[in-house]
């Protein structure tokens, strides 16, 4: 059984270029460019976040949980996890 280690972020939230609070069951979409960081915070605790990631230049390439699990060796997406696409590329 694996355990999740929560690490504090070294980033200053006040320095964020964008900051959104998304209500429960509401959609949100944004382009995250290469080199940018997306941080998802569960502000109420014990919530799941459903996410879809696509290549902005080729919508047939998408985030693959299976490929990420195989490459990262963990089912959890945590700080520093490299998301892997269905084409086997780091997103």
In short:
By secondary structure, this protein is largely without helices or strands. It has one helix and two strands, in the order E-E-H.
β-strand percent reads: 5-15%
The number of helices is: 1
Biggest sheet, spatial arrangement of strands: 1-2
Can you tell me the residue ranges where pLDDT is under 50 for at least 5 consecutive residues?
none
Q: What is the structural class?
A: little secondary structure
Number of strands: 2
Distance between the termini: 28 Å
Helix content: under 10%
Q: What's the order of the H and E elements?
A: EEH
Top keywords for this entry?
91 residues, little secondary structure, two-stranded antiparallel ribbon, globular
Description:
The longest helix is centred in the last third of the chain and has 8 residues, at 65-72. Strands 1-2 form a two-stranded antiparallel sheet. The model has no long low-confidence stretch (mean pLDDT 85). By secondary structure, it is largely without helices or strands. It is built from 1 helix and 2 strands, in the order ββα.
Secondary-structure blueprint of this entry?
Layout: E1 54-55, E2 58-62, H1 65-72
Antiparallel strand pairs: 1-2
